[in-house]
Give the backbone structure.
Amino acid sequence: MTFAEPSPTSCAGPAPRDCKHGRGNDCDDCKVRRFSVCGALEPAELEELDRLSQVRNFPARTMLFDQDAPADNVFNLTDGMVRLCKSLPDGRRQIVGFALPGDFLGLALMERYGVAAEAVTQVRVCRFARPAFLAYVDGKPHLLRRLHEFAGHELSLAQDQMLLLGRKTAEEKVAAFLLNLQTRYARVGAASVTIPLPMSRQDIADYLGLTIETVSRTLTKFAREKVIVIVPDGVRLLMIGRLDQSDAARSAVPF
Amino acid sequence: MTFAEPSPTSCAGPAPRDCKHGRGNDCDDCKVRRFSVCGALEPAELEELDRLSQVRNFPARTMLFDQDAPADNVFNLTDGMVRLCKSLPDGRRQIVGFALPGDFLGLALMERYGVAAEAVTQVRVCRFARPAFLAYVDGKPHLLRRLHEFAGHELSLAQDQMLLLGRKTAEEKVAAFLLNLQTRYARVGAASVTIPLPMSRQDIADYLGLTIETVSRTLTKFAREKVIVIVPDGVRLLMIGRLDQSDAARSAVPF
DNA sequence: AATATCCATTGACCTGGATCAATAATCGGC
DNA sequence: GCCGATTATTGATCCAGGTCAATGGATATT
């Protein structure tokens, strides 16, 4: 844990300008946008969600929860990056997603977590006890609706990833990965042609269904072709159109 | 279609014993279990859901809705099998799931369908107009909750499939496919060691991220090993344990 | 500064599954 | 029942990406 952790503090809503929660918290936490849920909440609801949540910090490379563990909590990521992993008993691993600020973890609301969540960087989350979260959320139709939309979006992303894993080439996979990450960073408000890649090559490989060597070779190839520049802890996109070509099918268009 | 089809008829709930919908419908439809939603509905709610839904039939190999089309309807499959496909412009295709009776289609509730839904067999569905469905469902917390759980379950299945697509061998993929199908048929009440495979080899290949030839060879191999018997339109499982071995990782367990 | 550890890159080679190419079943349509 | 069309099986060959191995570069430890 690098920075001081204020005792349980608010993370329920978009920052009220002059936020005082009456519990001695400053409100840096509130500056993080939580588009998924907190868009349309009433002040009273914010107060209540507030009471349900605790801020937690996790150092890089620690586990927020393990695959198949009882799903006691729901998390909203406010800072950092989390990887969601499924593993086979022999160690083969598939990363099913990288969570960025605003994303929910454990929202499937099943008995047990289907994936493990591991901090890629330092991570800050809002943690909700599941029963309290459920009890609160029940009877808030627009909130339920919001959560459902979030789940639907997740499902849609998962289906895109299935298409990628099942039918795309190594080059298309890496290109799609970079372009998606860029889009997501932009949505989090960190738009830039330089994409931070805090995760390891092994993580990228396990996300794309490739090996570390193939990821490395493909990135090198893109760099040779002047489509990207590899920088410390990231990549600078030079010719997005060119990357898109790798991503999209270069259709054969007969006759 | 095996049994007579009455004109537009109810499909909103688990069969009330002496079902009369007041619209001249007999209730064979209601015998189909819809565990996902209809488990805990009030009679009044059933009536209303009833009014919102229409029964539709689709012949085999027809499309219920197309990828990227406006998501005007929500469907509940009551009979038959539907494949959910995503395609790349050059024709590469990934089947992201096969729907069986009880499953919902278009529940992500987004503007447009992310996948195409195509009837594998003759299909019967309950169709809901999306706005009506949403309006009805809003303010029914337990129903929303149910739908959310369904979406969560879908997501979990999608993640399992990602692990399969990204990290399993052809043999493991085919074995997992057969075992999953068996489990699902059992849940639909059609338990048997003989698994119907109404979909084509190409469908199976596109579901597992393989080619038709590899699917065929792998099934032949299992048959040679006396783990399955290939029968017309299906497969009979002989040694489920053996299949499970192919499916699960045969862990190397060092020292 | 030297050493150990870990991770990424690069090269050489191999292989599981793809591709290409015949058959062989199966299914409609008469 | 016969014929053409579609789909499945089987075999021969190929190659994208995996495996194995060496090297380089970065970070941490003493």
